[in-house]
Specification:
Length: 221
């Protein structure tokens, strides 16, 4: 499981955006995944997932506003390199970035926005049986956006409230692979398919062994 997580986040971080619209929509998705605190004319955002800001730094130069604002002056990184990284921006810039998520539901920009949101709000688990992928959002508005994008692509989703968060779930392996392919996380999707194949072979081998053991026991009886 740890190998998949490391592979997934490394691949997510280094994915190169293909142009200004993609980078701008993904940047808006990252910002929407963070909880904003409004202080006077500024907005403060933070996350414990440091890779989110590595990704943010990668897409920022290709956005509509990137050339105008120096991201290095907006980030507050702890001197110890542990804890929360803070992003402090003016309200008008925050509004400009967030406006890039408008009308994303029926276009490719929806997947760019969702890929950005995935960095801070997404998790995947591989229990002994089945698959389990979740988007965990603070607001119902963001959850509805996620549901609309996934639903328009025919992916089967579940929805629930847990610990005050709105969770959107994917439990089908094919749907998870499709989602990762849409995110251009091709290595991660291939890894899941390979792991699924190994699981299927192991389960079949166990069934055959159990069947043989049962037949031998019956014969002895």
């Amino acid at each position: 499981m740890q190998k998949l997580k490391q592979l997934m986040w490394n691949e997510w971080t280094r994915c190169v955006p293909a142009g200004v619209p993609e980078a701008s929509a993904e940047c808006a998705g990252i910002l929407e995944s963070l909880y904003p605190k409004f202080i006077n004319d500024r907005v403060s955002l933070s996350s414990l997932r440091l890779w989110v800001f590595r990704r943010f730094s990668r897409v920022w130069p290709d956005t509509r506003w990137g050339p105008e604002y120096d991201l290095g002056k907006l980030l507050r990184v702890p001197a110890t390199m542990h804890g929360k990284v803070m992003l402090e921006i003016k309200r008008d810039l925050y509004g400009t970035i967030m406006s890039s998520s408008e009308g994303v539901y029926g276009s490719k920009r929806g997947w760019y926005w969702l890929r950005g949101l995935w960095g801070n709000n997404g998790s995947i688990y591989l229990p002994r049986t089945g698959y389990y992928l979740v988007f965990r959002m603070r607001t119902p508005q963001t959850a509805e956006k996620v549901l609309a994008i996934l639903g328009n692509s025919g992916l089967k989703t579940g929805k629930r409230m847990k610990s005050g968060y709105h969770e959107i779930l994917l439990r089908n392996q094919e749907d998870i692979v499709t989602l990762f392919s849409k995110f251009r996380l091709y290595e991660s999707s291939l890894y899941i398919e390979q792991r699924s194949l190994v699981r299927a072979m192991r389960e079949r081998a166990n069934k055959l062994v159990n069947c043989d053991a049962s037949n031998i026991r019956k014969s002895l009886e």
